[in-house]
Write a structure and sequence with these properties.
This protein is mainly alpha-helical. Helix content is 35%, strand content 8%. It has two helices and two strands, in the order H-E-E-H. A two-stranded antiparallel sheet has the order 1-2.
Length: 101
């Protein structure tokens, strides 16, 4: 593996400043794209979805339970795997201390 050269502190600082300019440009572009995404028009959900909730069948509105927003986690499992992983019920999140055995 070819490693970067070892340089003086001044050369390193100059390189870091050049990279920082690019990083800030990327951040501004990503923020602008996110703002554009938030301004996208909405689409009415007209399909009658039915979910298995903790109290039986639930429709989409029932899932909100009086809240303004709903976060939906979506996970894909390899063939032969079913159910949620055993880490607090949400993919990608380690268990909280209170959830650990």
């Amino acid at each position: 593996m070819k490693t970067p050269p070892i340089v003086s502190r001044q050369e390193w600082e100059a390189a870091r400043q050049q990279l920082l300019v690019k990083e800030k440009e990327l951040t501004r572009a990503r923020d602008a794209l996110a703002a554009e995404r938030r301004r996208m028009p909405w689409l009415a959900v007209e399909k009658k979805y039915e979910f298995a909730g903790p109290e039986g069948k639930a429709n989409l509105l029932d899932l909100f339970d009086g809240r303004r927003q709903l976060i939906v986690y979506r996970a894909f499992f390899e063939p032969g795997v079913s159910g949620w992983p055993d880490h607090g019920g949400r993919p990608g999140r380690p268990p909280r201390p209170s959830e650990r055995p």
